[in-house]
Amino acid sequence: MKIAYQGIPGSYSESCAKKNYPGCETISCKTFDECFEMASNDNNIRTIIPESNKTTGNIGIEYLIFKFRLNIYAEHFYKISHNLLGLKGSKITDIKNVYSHAQALSQSSIFVKKNNLTEQVRADTAGSAKYVSESRDISKAAIASTLSADIYNLDIIEKDIQDNKENYTRFLIMGKDIHQPENDKNSYVTSFLFKLKSKPAALYSALQGMAINGVNMIKLQSFPEKNSFSSYFFLCEVEGHLNQQKIKNSLEDLNYHCEDMSVLGVFEADKIRKK
After folding, report:
1. Which stretch of 134-148, 151-165, 178-192 has the lowest confidence by average pLDDT?
2. Host domain of residue 73
3. What is the pLDDT of residues 168-192, one digit of tens each?
4. At what angle do helices 245-256 and 202-212 cross, to 10 degrees?
């Protein structure tokens, strides 16, 4: 399996891909757009995308989900353990500036403030580790993964510096081909996009079918349509399989109220949801 991810070798996206798909071939991409483009143009390539984080919320890739409408094959809740990485032999007292992605810095804010470190925002965590390695400056450190420490020959000065020790990021595995698992005894999630017709109480009316059919909604997120502040799409997820009658009935009722609707996928719920 080939999996495209945003960042360079050592990123959390690559780490998650390698953990869940041992032996997969990972493909580094500069941007999330490039990941989606690659998966959209090649049936043999899937992409792994961080969708949200338990501590800091949504990552901000919803517009790409809407634009490309790739099928979602799986979700993986991956525990993010941030580490302070520095040059060989460096100590915490040597560090003045810490480099990382904005999300990683935010998720490690208590540690950063406690040690009076100056935050330096960069495009990604692994790229920050590479930068520190190449800088040869003992006063610089990066917040990144243990895999990055190995790849870029850095010391782990401090482990698990994230504010929340149960710091999980939800990753989605997406691709061009439509694949729907059989409805067995496992727990499933059905994901879909919709845009409502413009009328009073449209959202209230559209979601009534879910209440009537006893469908549990686990995600509802709005985001503006391109070049508009008055037209919105909704990204929604519910517990259940598309082949269940209650899900079918709910989506049929919802579709009546929509200008546009697209099912993104049915996939097994990650076991972390049961905790």
Report:
1. 178-192
2. 2-79+168-175
3. 999 999 999 988 888 887 899 999 9
4. 160
